[in-house]
Amino acid sequence: MLGNRESYFEALDEVKNICKVKFGDKVCSVYVGGSVARGDFVPGRSDIDLYVVLKSNKVQHKIQMELEKIKSKEKPISVAYTTKKEVIGGQSFLGSGFEYNNFIREGKLIYGQEIKERIPKPTREEEIKTADQCLKFFEANYKDYEEEVIGRYFSATFRTFCIVLSGKGIYVSSKKDVVTVCNKRFKARKLLNEKINVIYDLWLTWGREKLTQQQVCTLIKACDDIMPLIFDLWESKELNLEPL
């Protein structure tokens, strides 16, 4: 488990060293995303989200095995793989609506060559289609998170909200920004604001200390309550929003 900020940076150094020593130019690029890239991560709670761009998918299994060794040391690393060919051809997940905008804005290169400018920008129609597909998946599966760790509740809720916002042309990824947008742009949706504020407050608490059983119950209830509200926001096609 990574208990302090320095240990996160050490884990990134370990990833860079593996790529450099064992794979060289077979790995085109490695980016870190999410809260670690932004710098607002919570030690011991936040995952390290890595995006690995390979020269060829032939080496994916080998590098996967190497990075799994880091994860086996109780380091919360999540890795997504793609190839340079997929990136340039617009077939990579990095070019999908929700992922594209956050990756371009926040993805931080830690190894290899910069490839952001080579990713075709999705059209608004493609962004909306991607958001709709993702939301249908989450709507069908989000309750599966109930059997996993507390962090998955937060992740499922805020990621779903981010996808909805991306479909409306609002590109945010940090939990704080999601709450700010919700409070300012959807004031009339009082229950939605109430629930997202409760969940965010619990997130902040969880960053400082272990949640009590009562707080865990409150989190589960709030997450279950807010999901239909988030999906309703998507279905409303509410696009005429007040400027921030």
UniProtKB/TrEMBL annotation:
Q: Known InterPro entries for this protein?
A: NT_sf (IPR043519), Polymerase_NTP_transf_dom (IPR002934)
Q: Which PROSITE patterns match?
A: 25A_SYNTH_3
The record's SUPFAM superfamilies line, in alphabetical order, gives:
Nucleotidyltransferase (SSF81301)
Concerning Pfam families, the annotation shows: NTP_transf_2 (PF01909)
Recorded GO MF terms? nucleotidyltransferase activity
Bilayer-spanning residue ranges: none
Pinpoint the Polymerase nucleotidyl transferase domain residues.
12-84
Q: Report the protein name in the record.
A: Nucleotidyltransferase domain-containing protein
Species source reads Proteinivorax tanatarense
